[in-house]
Specification:
The complex is a heterodimer.
Chain A lengths: L1 H19 L11 E6 L17 H7 L4 E3 L5 E3 L2 E6 L5 E6 L13 H12 L8 H4 L2 E8 L2 E6 L6 H4 L22 H6 L7 E7 L3 E6 L12 E6 L3 H10 L4 E3 L6 H4 L5 E7 L2 E7 L9 H10 L2 H9 L3 E3 L23 H10 L3 E2 L5 E3 L2 E2 L1 E7 L4 H14 L3 E7 L1 H9 L6 E7 L7 H4 L16 H12 L3 H18 L3 E13 L2 E2 L6 H4 L7 E2 L1
Parallel strand pairs in A: 1-10, 18-19, 18-20
Antiparallel strand pairs in A: 2-3, 4-5, 5-7, 6-7, 8-9, 9-10, 11-21, 12-21, 13-20, 13-21, 14-21, 15-16, 16-17, 22-23
Helix pairs in contact in A: 9-11, 15-16
Chain B lengths: L1 H15 L14 H10 L6 H13 L13 H36 L4 H15 L2 H15 L17 H35 L2 H8 L4 H30 L2 H6 L5 H10 L3 H29 L7
Helix pairs in contact in B: 1-12, 4-5, 4-7, 4-9, 5-7, 6-7, 7-9, 8-9, 9-12, 11-12
Chain lengths: 525, 302
């Protein structure tokens, strides 16, 4: 009797379920995803205030011409394909047809030109303008073809365009003289082409996006994505545990233990295209001797620092190009173990002899230098530790920790430092031109003011070549040279720590910001 | 006059602080970008010129645009101030409703078990770090028991409802009250103890008034004067925003805004926040003075 009742119930359930399932048999639409952000977002990817709190939302709302591919090569997005002229100076993008903005208007090449004209306009000071200043002109060939004319070849253009380079609609800015004060778009009702469109925004609290059923990449199955303003890292962890947040990255590795081993949360790591480093100022005579730079690389115990500050969530860096770049990463370069004897020997070869108090002396000059760092993350402790490591080989270090604002304005930009602890996060391409080429020494991102004609030649060649195999050869060489010559003193390549509720499926194995460009493939179970 | 002095001092101080607006201070910034932004924000003009311009528009209650997301400062403050008033007001009400009676009980039953309990509890409340208490409450009531929402002001996507708002308000208000309440208890207790020992209380008792009436009509009334003074100091602090509480509970109030603006060198926002808080200080002082004369008719102004 009971068994029969059970059977009837099951049958009934199966019937109901059958009716509820969509006729096509495709995945059911539903579920909401909640992701933390640290402040009020600005919904314009080029706004000078487009910082970390804005990136997650704009990655979903907008599309670039390209996007980060799952195979780490740039993948088509609003552009279906692209061609580069043989001199590398003209890039032609063939746009996807039939793409609609969230308000129903057609997306065309005019929107691309409108967007990049703002970016390359030196008076606008747009986000990333520094990277794109290489663009001389953007030409509309026809409504689905657009050409970029460059000042000099940049083979990585399609990679650079894959992140934080969303195309914005020309018609939404009609009659607007200053795009940065166009609050109706930037702060309230952005119009993009992305998989989700704006639904509700409560300043200071959250922004909810709803699925765009007309998305050109395929209709998403998730109903809504909410970005919740939650600046406190501990509170984020608590809400991951309570299920209020679906996914998050964990910035502070010390907090990983709280979520590791929980049945509802999966913790994974993805290598980042970032290198932490100490930049030696080549304007300072102390660091012009390569042996001194090599000695410092031997003087510190990087595996111990990674265990201490990063709970092991990083890899000792042998150069700027991280394993996140896949095939472009060259593991066969000079590496530096923690070896104080070797460090002292190198310093001795460079003419530095221990003085009476153990500090090295050369020609009556003590080896005394300053380490500048921003007082964020774990840099305070890092600075103190580096000070001790260097003191142990006879280098006296004075610490100069300053708040981030001053770090940039008073130290980094005017190059006013001896040693500068920091990091570079770069597009997923081995093009290190901005960080090492002599043309960027005084005014660009080449912080150490490093000038090496061999490195310059390699970097210029790498920008001209487009075939992956040729580029790999050139950048393999670059990695060998800069591991030996040390324009930067490499610390580590960090891993991004991702915590994702197990009910959420289909998140590609990319950094979470890049994975947000695939939200139409995400689904909730 | 007060407002003018306060705003002049603040203007000079924020402008002399090292660094510059955060939108100009990213590692990826080029000097060309910096120049462009400096011009857009009007920072290419000398400080005196900027101050005259700012004063002129501030007179018309227009505080300009934020240096960070370039929104109108007035709009942002209009969004944030009510949230802070709600949270601060609730915390204040909790503190007064619990703190004043607790102080009275404590003072009238001096050295009793109740007194010791109240004193002990207020010392605990005073010494618990806010961030720790907040996280513990979230872990217990949101993560473990799932009774209360962990953050925000309202359930995302749900229509406004009073119960929902109260549920969100509960934990941050308690945390905030925990910081202010002990102060009130301590002040109420010591002030009342002092009043009870006064001659006029003895006289009142001697002429045969009920002890309860002596307390409520004479002693407590006079003891409230120092308590009102403390409130005059506490209220502007609550309006300025409870930074830690707001940050942990994701409460979109003035505190979060103030910290972000100060670290981001968002001069117009810092200036506007300063003026708002200065106005609140002035109003609170006025109310406190009025309360004095109500509590003690001997105090008159004029």
């Amino acid at each position: 009797m009971r068994a029969r009742a059970m059977m009837a119930l099951l049958l009934g359930l199966a019937l109901v379920a059958g009716f509820l399932a969509p006729a096509s048999g495709g995945p059911a639409v539903g579920g909401s995803v909640v992701f933390p952000i640290v402040g009020d977002p600005t919904f314009n990817p080029w706004h000078p205030r487009h910082f970390i709190e804005s990136i997650p939302a704009t990655r979903v709302l907008f599309n670039g011409l390209t996007k980060p591919g799952k195979d780490r090569a740039p993948a088509p997005d609003l552009a279906e394909r692209w061609e580069v002229s043989s001199d590398g100076l003209t890039w032609t993008f063939f746009l996807r047809r039939g793409v609609k903005w969230h308000d129903g208007r057609d997306f065309t090449a005019d929107d691309v030109k409108f967007t990049y004209d703002i970016v390359i306009n030196p008076r606008m000071g747009a986000q990333q303008a520094g990277i794109y200043r290489i663009i001389k002109e953007v030409k509309v060939v026809n409504p689905t073809t657009v050409q970029f004319v460059l000042e000099a070849p940049v083979a990585s253009l399609a990679v650079v365009m894959a992140t934080n380079s969303g195309i914005i609609p020309r018609h939404a800015f009609a009659g607007v003289s200053d795009p940065w004060t166009h609050d109706a778009f930037n702060k309230r009702a952005p119009i993009g082409t992305g998989a989700f469109k704006i639904k509700e925004y409560v300043s200071g609290s959250y922004v909810t996006l709803e699925r765009n059923p007309n998305y050109f990449g395929g209709a998403p199955t998730i109903e809504t994505i909410t970005f919740k303003v939650l600046p406190d890292a501990n509170a984020q962890i608590a809400q991951l545990l309570s299920g209020d947040l679906t996914l998050a990255f964990i910035d502070n590795p010390a907090l990983v233990r709280a979520v590791q081993g929980r049945p509802t949360i999966e913790v994974s790591t993805v290598p980042e295209a970032t290198f932490y480093n100490v930049a030696p100022n080549f304007g300072n005579k102390l660091f012009q001797d390569r042996r001194v730079r090599q000695a410092i690389m031997h003087a510190w115990d990087r595996p111990a620092m990674i265990r201490g500050f990063l709970e092991g969530f990083a890899t000792v860096a042998s150069g700027p190009i991280s394993p996140a770049l896949g095939g472009y990463f060259n593991p066969n370069v000079k590496t530096y173990d923690f070896d104080r004897a070797r460090a002292r020997q190198l310093l001795a070869e460079a003419g530095w002899q221990p003085g009476p108090d153990g500090v090295l002396v050369k020609d009556g000059q003590r080896f005394r230098t300053t380490l500048t760092y921003p007082t964020i993350q774990y840099f305070d402790s890092l600075g103190a530790l580096i000070q001790q490591y260097l003191r142990a080989v006879g280098i006296e270090v004075v610490l100069d920790g300053v708040d981030f604002n001053q770090f940039v304005s008073q130290r980094l930009l005017p190059r006013r430092f001896d040693l500068l602890a920091g990091w570079w996060r770069y597009p997923a391409d081995p093009d290190m031109y901005p960080y090492m080429h002599s043309s960027n020494a005084e005014r660009g991102f080449n912080l150490p003011v490093y000038k090496n004609s061999q490195v310059d030649t390699i970097l210029e060649e790498g920008r001209k070549l487009t075939a992956v195999r040729d580029r790999k050869r050139v950048y393999d060489k670059l990695q060998e040279v800069v591991a030996e010559d040390l324009p930067y003193l490499y610390l580590w390549w960090p891993n991004e720590i991702r915590a994702i509720n197990r009910r959420l499926k289909g998140v590609p194995a990319l950094g979470l910001r890049d994975a947000l460009q695939y939200t139409h493939e995400w689904r909730m179970e | 006059m007060v407002l003018f002095v306060v705003s002049t001092l603040t203007f000079v101080m924020v402008n002399l602080a090292p660094g510059g607006p955060a939108i100009m201070m990213t590692m990826e910034m080029t000097p060309e970008q910096q120049d462009a932004l400096r011009r857009q924000l009007g920072l290419d003009q000398p400080m005196a010129v900027r101050f005259v311009k700012w004063t002129a528009s501030a007179m018309r209650a227009d505080f300009g645009r934020s240096f960070s997301d370039r929104r109108r400062v007035n709009e942002v403050i209009a969004e944030r101030l009510p949230n802070t008033l709600l949270l601060g007001g609730t915390a204040l009400a909790l503190s007064i409703l619990i703190g004043v009676p607790a102080g009275i009980i404590s003072a009238t039953r001096r050295y009793s078990v109740t007194d010791h309990t109240v004193t002990f509890a207020s010392f605990i409340g005073l010494s618990i770090p806010v961030f720790w208490l907040a996280i513990i409450l979230i872990l217990v009531f949101a993560v473990r028991l799932d009774w209360l929402p962990a953050s925000g002001m309202a359930t995302i996507g749900a229509p406004y409802s009073l119960t929902d708002r109260l549920a969100h308000l509960m934990m941050p208000a308690v945390v905030l009250a925990t910081a202010t309440l002990p102060n009130l208890v301590r002040f109420m207790r010591s002030a009342l103890i002092e009043e009870i020992g006064q001659d006029y209380v003895r006289t009142a008792r001697a002429k045969g008034l009920m002890p309860r009436r002596v307390l409520s009509h004479h002693a407590v009334r006079n003891a409230l004067i120092p308590v009102v003074t403390v409130l005059g100091v506490l209220i502007p602090r609550l309006v300025g925003g409870a930074v830690i509480t707001e940050t942990i509970f994701g409460w979109p109030g003035m505190g979060q805004l103030a910290v972000a603006s100060a670290t981001g060198r968002d001069y117009p926002m810092v200036m506007a926040l300063t003026v708002v808080v200065a106005i609140v200080v002035i109003i609170t002082n006025l109310i406190v003075d009025l309360a004095y004369s109500w509590l003690d008719p001997r105090i008159t102004y004029g």
